[in-house]
Amino acid sequence: MKNIQAIAFDLDGTLIHSLPDLADSANTVRAHFGMPPLEESLIETFIGDGVTHLMHRALTADFNGTDEARIEEALAIHIAYYGEHFTNRTQLYPHVKETLAALQARDIRIALVTNKIERHARKILEHYGIIEYFAAIYGGDTLPVHKPAPDQILGVAKDFNLAPEQVLMVGDSPNDMLSAKAAGSPTLFVSYGYCDNEALINNPATTPDYQIDSFEKLQEMLAKNKVEV
Fold it and tell me: In this predicted model, what pLDDT tens digit does every residue of 53-84 receive, in sequence order?
């Protein structure tokens, strides 16, 4: 990785293990409509495309399902519930805080690029004491479009006065890879998140430039000067 001046991180499945609280929220929505809860393992497959897709999938128990009749009510319930319970069982992945501090110490600028709504993302970063490391934050509702569109990453590059190829995108989902590739940015895939790893790696449209299996490996790459700045 040559001349990387900034790193844009995804949130869910990359910096935080948020599945338990997202599952609780999705099942709270289902309970409101008199439906039984879904297994966390199924809800895990619903994460990554933003809150609207998550709610459609939760309502229908189907990745491709839609429920236009109940979606607005479901979104309101989720946003209210999740906004009060997003740290009940969510945890930072190991070594996240130390790695962000190491990046900042190397003068690498740090951004958040997530499909989670911005106010929830900011509250989560604040709660876990890491918001100070982020010089730019793009949520799913910050711009008119979000991942897999390239706009958020292009926004980061513009904010930092960098070319897109100087911004490394780190994430766990196809949308992270697609948005970065569309922007012209290099990609680093974290394989511990919420994704079908084999499908992502073997699909030419989402094959990452680099891959790590734990967040601490990024710090190891820095320590061994494998990331050139």
Answer: 999 999 999 999 999 999 999 999 999 999 99
**Side chain identity at residue 106, one-letter code:** R
* Span 203-226, pLDDT tens digits: 999 999 999 999 999 977 766 655
Q: Flag whether 196 is marked binding.
A: no
Q: Which of 10, 21, 24, 151 is catalytic?
A: 10
**Is 12 assigned a ligand-binding role in the annotation?**
yes
Interval 75-103 mean pLDDT: 95
Residue 71 structure tokens: 């979606």
Catalytic site includes residue 10 = yes
Same domain flag for 175 and 112 = yes
Peptide bond just before 148 cis, omega within 30 deg: yes
Let me know: does 151 contact 145? Beta carbons within 8 Å.
yes
CB distance 169 to 152 below 8 Å = no
Q: Examine the domain organization and report whether 161 and 62 are in the same domain.
A: no
Per DSSP, which regions of the chain are E strands? 6-9, 16-17, 91-92, 109-113, 136-138, 167-171, 187-190, 210-212
Q: State how many domains the chain has.
A: 2
This prediction's pTM: 0.91
- Determine if residue 10 is labeled as part of a ligand binding site: yes
Do 138 and 212 lie in one domain? The reply is: yes
Residue 179 lies in a domain: yes
Which domain covers residue 193, as residue numbers? 6-17+91-225
Tokens (6 digits) for 22: 């997202």
Rounded to whole angstroms, how far apart are CA atoms 142 and 180? 17
